[in-house]
Design a protein that fits this description.
This protein has three helices and 46 strands. It is mainly beta and 591 residues long. The chain folds into three domains: 209 residues, Jelly Rolls, CATH 2.60.120; 121 residues, Immunoglobulin-like (Sandwich), CATH 2.60.40.740; 183 residues, no CATH class. The longest helix is centred in the N-terminal third of the chain and has 15 residues. This is DUF7933 domain-containing protein. InterPro entries: DUF7933 (IPR057693). Pfam families: DUF7933.
């Protein structure tokens, strides 16, 4: 087969350069299907180079699952590809089509190889060029140019298109299933004025060869460097394969049929785990109950930015978080995102296009109950093609219940009696109630009471509305030797707050007093006495009936059936209730 090397064309270096320039003007200068990387940019391996949660939108390097540098047990001698065994523990061996194992192909060569080629390899006068390519690849990767080995192919015959130049024999074990795999390779080429090597890498999923590129690698196009006339570069595929199994293989097919040129070498073949990283985060992270927070799922590509199609995951939200049915959105290609408010699950299926750094899916959540809700990796089920996220949390602050009641209280400094039969549900955002009663009570020389009953409660409706309520009742009232009597006096206080789309609304308060046969100095008092009705008691003091007082800046109300103040400084209250809904930052009264 007629070669296009210098020796046989009679071209000088200037002629070669001119021819290469003319060829370059006839080809597409943009590199399709692969990414040219800086030397050594994918050398790192292991978990330190992998994506990690907590950096959404910042791609990390893919993890190297397997690498072959063709150095195991090699020295000055030249080895044929089928005779080579890689380093442990994989101890990988390789095969190729016969056309790529003859005619100066399929040789592991270094610059320190003998000056003349081994017998039967048919390299003719091109042996030195094989050694030059191995040396250039060593320089490019930061290794020893003199001892670096590469797999060379200086075709002295037409190999034919679509034939396998390298294929792994043993399956390469993977750390888990449902991982995105891609590859990178250091590649070199000479005689780029003629036919170019066209390196098509496939990942083997069982017996199925799956392309991890959109077009083959052409080392002559946009090389990372030209070293001693050899074009070199590190190339990462812009495609990927979503593997369902737990092992994989590698196949290199050269799509260039001609031996007129097509002179190249490869080194540092790497199988890469390029699974995207899933992150999750709430915004805002602290808000009142009922207000919406956005939960964002971010899927971040790895740094080679290969396309990742077909990943998916389900997320189960913790009990207490409410999910808006129609709130799921996504910008992940042809993705779908659904939110099921009934069972609190989010399901996302999506793609990352080649060159895309990240994409997101969002849902709206809220809670009618105060507390901190955490979502961690354990919330993600059926992950396909994504690495699990870290934890995120959101805190919803709820109004604080302040519900209090008592049957009676006497203050006569330094003597204090009561409060009698107190009930309280206060200084908590949780629902609950408290209630008490006695069959009789005494207020010293001021008077006596019959049955006293009180209760206080906080309740949360299914729609998130909150109600603080308190009730107090006293029977058989006799104060100041019959000056004030009643069969029954009682009060009721309530504070209610509904939830709006922005959180808790305005607190609405109500208060009322019940009066049955109330008499003051023998005169009957109307059962529907207006709030804060005051009756003067000559030479004794004064009595306020149905006393109503706002508390906490209008967030609550205190209602007292009877408030008696004597000229002696004695103060008596009967059937007093307070109901309020406070902000978490408001001081909460002692109970």
């Amino acid at each position: 087969m007629k070669r296009f090397g210098l020796a046989e064309t009679g071209m000088g270096e200037a002629d070669v350069g001119s021819a290469r320039a003319r060829w370059g003007r006839r080809v597409v200068t943009a590199l399709l299907g692969v990414t040219v990387l800086a030397a050594g940019s994918l050398v790192a391996s292991g978990s330190a180079a992998a994506n990690a949660p907590g950096r959404p939108g910042t791609p990390s390097a893919p993890t190297t699952v397997f690498t072959e540098d063709f150095e195991n047990g090699q020295g000055p001698a030249v080895t044929s590809l089928p005779d080579y065994t890689g380093a442990g523990p994989a101890a990988e061996t390789y095969t190729a089509d016969p056309a790529w194992l003859t005619a100066c192909n399929g040789l592991l060569v270094s610059q320190q190889a003998p000056a003349v080629p081994p017998a039967g390899v048919y390299c003719g006068s091109y042996w030195a060029q094989n050694k030059q390519m191995a040396s250039a690849l060593g320089t490019w990767s930061g290794g020893d140019a003199a001892t670096n080995h590469s797999l060379t192919a200086y075709t002295s015959a037409d190999p034919g298109a679509g034939r396998t130049e390298l294929e792994t024999v043993q399956p390469i074990p993977l750390s888990a299933d449902h991982r995105f795999l891609t590859f990178s390779v250091d590649a070199a080429a000479q005689n780029c004025f003629a036919s170019h090597p066209l390196l098509a890498f496939y990942l083997l999923d069982g017996g199925t060869a799956r392309a991890a590129f959109s077009s083959p690698i052409d080392p002559c196009q946009n090389p990372g460097a030209v070293i001693g006339g050899t074009s070199v570069g590190t190339y990462a595929s812009n495609g990927s394969v979503l593997f369902t199994g737990d092992s994989a293989g590698i196949r290199l097919v050269n799509e260039q049929a001609s031996g007129g040129g097509n002179d190249g070498a490869i080194d540092n073949v790497r199988l890469l785990d390029a699974t995207p990283q899933l992150d999750q985060g709430f915004a805002p992270t602290q808000l009142p109950v009922g207000a919406p927070s956005t939960l964002t799922f971010t899927v971040t590509n790895t740094s080679e930015l290969a396309a990742k199609d077909g990943w998916s995951f389900n997320a189960q939200l913790p009990a207490g978080l409410r999910l808006a049915d129609d709130s799921a959105t996504t910008d992940c290609g042809t993705a779908t995102a659904t939110a099921d408010a009934g069972d609190g699950t989010v399901t996302v299926h999506g793609d990352l296009a080649a060159g895309q750094r990240d994409c997101t899916a969002t849902v709206r959540v809220t809670s009618i109950n105060g507390g901190t809700y955490q979502v961690c990796a354990s919330a993600i089920s059926d992950p396909v093609g994504v690495d699990l996220p870290g934890c995120t949390s959101v805190t919803f602050t709820a109004p604080v219940f302040d519900a209090r009641s008592n049957g009676a209280r006497l203050t006569a400094p330094p003597l204090t009696i009561g409060p009698l039969v107190p009930s309280a549900h206060s200084c908590t955002s949780l629902p609950g109630d408290d209630r008490h009663s006695v069959i009789s009570a005494a207020l010293g020389s001021v008077g006596t009471l019959g049955v006293l009953t009180t209760d206080a409660s906080g309740a949360v409706d299914t729609d998130g509305a909150r109600t603080a309520a308190a009730h107090a009742k006293a029977t058989g009232l006799n104060l100041l030797s019959g000056l004030i009597t009643a069969d029954v006096v009682g009060t009721s206080a309530q504070a209610r707050q509904v939830l709006t789309d922005a959180g808790p609304g305005t607190v609405a308060t109500t208060g009322s007093t019940t009066l049955t046969n109330l008499r003051v100095a023998g005169a009957a008092v109307a059962a529907n006495a207006a709030p804060n009705t005051t009756i003067a008691l000559p030479l004794v003091g004064s009595l306020v009936i149905n006393q109503q007082t706002p508390v906490a800046g209008g967030k609550g109300i205190t209602v007292t059936a009877l408030s008696l103040t004597l000229l002696t400084g004695v103060h008596v209250t009967v059937a007093q209730t307070t109901a309020a809904l406070l902000l978490p930052t408001d001081p909460c009264p002692a109970t």
